[in-house]
Amino acid sequence: MTKTRNSFVASLLALAISLPSALAMPQESADAAVRRVYEGLEEGRLEQVWQALPSSYQSDIRNILRNLAPETETEIELWNQSMGVMAKLLRLVRAKSDFILGHPMLAAQVADQGKRDEVQGILMGVADLVEIIIGSAFSDPDNLASLDVDGYLREVGPRLYKIFRDLQAKSSTKQPEGKTVVTLISSQGDSAKLSILEPGRPAREDDYLRVEGKWLPQEMVEGWDAQMKQVQSTLQMAALQAQDEEMIAQQRMMMGMLDQSLDQMAAADSQEEFNTAAQTLVGAVMMAAAAQAQGQ
């Protein structure tokens, strides 16, 4: 009996040792991996893009989100103020779209009623897109710092996809139908060349590299570190500006001007009143652009 028991235990140990190698899946081919990403995008499954990134790339993006989230009381105050301004802007787009399209900067371009209806539909769709994107991830700084990117993309992906489809349907420009075709041209080790044929576009050949088991465009891989350094440099500069009392005062003033202008535009009962209120908004935007250029 003891001998039988020992043989059984030995068999279990041997099975446990061999199981990982027996169940190991073959590495995904470049064309299969890229095809899966395109299929995800075309079906609104944005999490497929995130899942296609190597762990180190995901870590870089999480670090950016953590650094982007405000930490000090002043930073949080300005962040909440800017989110409040954005919320007012979205409400204005929905409530005063006729006045927006009637502004002299746009009126001539949408004089035709058909074009006006198209632009108005697109304007509403863009407002919906922005609201979805910033709604759960950016409205609360704590959410941004600890954002579950995969879960976030799973949540917003289908809704964004529906809006994109609606925008395409409202556009006068005919959007080509069909799916992206990905074909393997050649593959050797961690390198591959693929043919990418997107609907309505000529086929192109792209080089891909395998990084940590994930297939990525060679151009993306070669430029990733430089892009991350550039983003980090921009965030560091923003952090320094957040400590500059003069810069903080300018930001508060600009946000106040934007907030006041949006209130006036929302209260406008005529195109003339709306246009007058919009001048303050244009001035605030120009001031913000000038301050940004000076900070650089």
Question: Tags for this entry?
Answer:
13 helices; about 10% strand; alpha+beta; about 300 residues; single chain; 4 strands
Shape: globular
Strand-residue proportion? 5-15%
| Largest sheet, spatial ordering of strands | 1-2-3-4
Fraction of residues in H or I helices: over 70%
In DSSP terms (H or I, runs of 4 or more residues), the helix count works out at 13
Radius of gyration: 26 Å
Q: Uncertain segments of ≥5 residues (pLDDT<50)?
A: 1-25
Q: Which sheet architecture does the biggest sheet show?
A: 4 strands, antiparallel
What's the quick description here?
The chain has 296 residues and is of the alpha+beta class. It has helices spanning 2-23, 30-42, 47-51, 55-68, 73-95, 97-102, 104-107, 113-137, 141-145, 149-170, 218-241, 245-267, 271-295; strands at residues 181-188, 191-197, 204-211, 214-217.
Write the layout of secondary structure elements.
Elements (H helix, E strand, L loop, with lengths): L1 H22 L6 H13 L4 H5 L3 H14 L4 H23 L1 H6 L1 H4 L5 H25 L3 H5 L3 H22 L10 E8 L2 E7 L6 E8 L2 E4 H24 L3 H23 L3 H25 L1
Antiparallel strand pairs: 1-2, 2-3, 3-4
Helix pairs in contact: 4-11, 5-8, 5-12, 8-10, 12-13
Describe the structure in your own words.
With 296 residues, this protein is an alpha+beta fold. Helices cover 71% and strands 9% of the residues. A 4-stranded antiparallel beta sheet has the order 1-2-3-4. A hairpin with a 2-residue loop joins β1 (181-188) and β2. Mean pLDDT is 83; it is low at 1-25.
